[in-house]
Write a structure and sequence with these properties.
Layout lengths: L9 H33 L6 H4 L1 E8 L5 H13 L4 E5 L14 E5 L3 H9 L2 E7 L18 E4 L19 E4 L3 H13 L5 E4 L3 H12 L9 E4 L8 H4 L2 H8 L4 E4 L5 H4 L1 H10 L6 E3 L6 H6 L2 E4 L4 H9 L3 E3 L19 H9 L1 E2 L8 H9 L2 H14 L6 H16 L1
Parallel strand pairs: 1-2, 1-4, 2-3, 4-5, 5-6, 6-7, 8-9, 8-11, 9-10, 11-12, 12-13
Helix pairs in contact: 3-6, 3-16
Amino acid sequence: MMLFPLYIDPGTGSALFSILIGASAALYFGIRALSLKLKTLFSGRNILSNAESNSKYVIYSEGKQYWNLFKPIVEEFENNKIEIRFLTSSSDDPVFESTWQYVKPEFIGEGNKAYAYLNFLGAEILLMTTPGLNVYQIKRTKRIKHYSHILHASSDATMYRLFGLDYFDSVLLTGDYQADDIRILEKNRGTPEKKLVTVGCPYLDTYSQKINSIPEEENHPFTVLVSPSWGPSALLSLYGEKLLDPLSASPWRVIIRPHPQSLKSEKTMLEKLQSRYTNNNNITWDLDRENVYSLKKADIMISDFSGIIFDYMFLQEKPVLYVKQDLDMRLYDADDIDHELWMFKTIKEAGIELHADDFSNIINLINNAKNSNLLAAARKKACNEAWFYPGEAGKRIYDFMISTVNNNA
């Protein structure tokens, strides 16, 4: 009997890979969630009594890094005298720094403690940036009538890990273009259509206010901002001094702002680079929590595919140079999309790709980028596509949450 090798076409193989990864993740985190629930039930401690009390409006924040996004929303609830619970996994979340009458902040712990709290929560609507609902640790419950996800970047909504948005009731978008790919995923996977509402980008609204409030520098020197993502294929890890040496020899001020995760995961690499340029007066390091001060100072940015590229383009309307990263898209929802993502298409139009053999000519590249009307037009087009309703996101999200609860009553 002759046996023929089994052939699986690339499309089917990709789908099977997605299903296998998703099923494995769902099983793993389902077992963890069940174990955690049993521990809670038999612990004899009523630690979740606050969670079980029903609320109309609830926000969950994974940490203080999301305060700039949630701030315009909770301010709308405060100004309209409507009570909202703000649950956070940061004990030092900036929400605790203000005195609120209608915003009720609460630290619910980190990791499994927070997930257990959310799995017992009762609410009319829960808004969060956390993806993977009903796939990872946070499970859907009948005690919550409506789960809403708010995007925390103006780039593609499919750049989450597999099934990141599948089980939400609604997704709040920064721009209309993000809806198209979500609809493709729903059709391909046979999942119910979510309510997709374009509301703008609240954290860009916050950043815009902050940047506009920063005074202009006197005797401002031309400034290059190096602001990459992190990991082995990110800008500083791949190239380090190969890029920074030519910049350090330039006549410009160079600000290096590592990704916050680099400070934890790539400490040795950063310390080596900091030591190399200790005596170089035009190299400075920005390790502050807020990036708006460096964004304000910068006349041009060099990055990889960090989302900060689009923040900088939209807030400052200035040029970017980028180094292309090799991403394994099989782990992301985007792998189930059969066309080029908006972010990849846009960065090619609005930015200048930087190759390693360009580093020696970096000064000429930057000088040419400064004066390009074509790049300026592409940046403006990208901003119009990805950042709707500047300055209005907080109010639009507030209106959405209010109308959703009223319609479900």
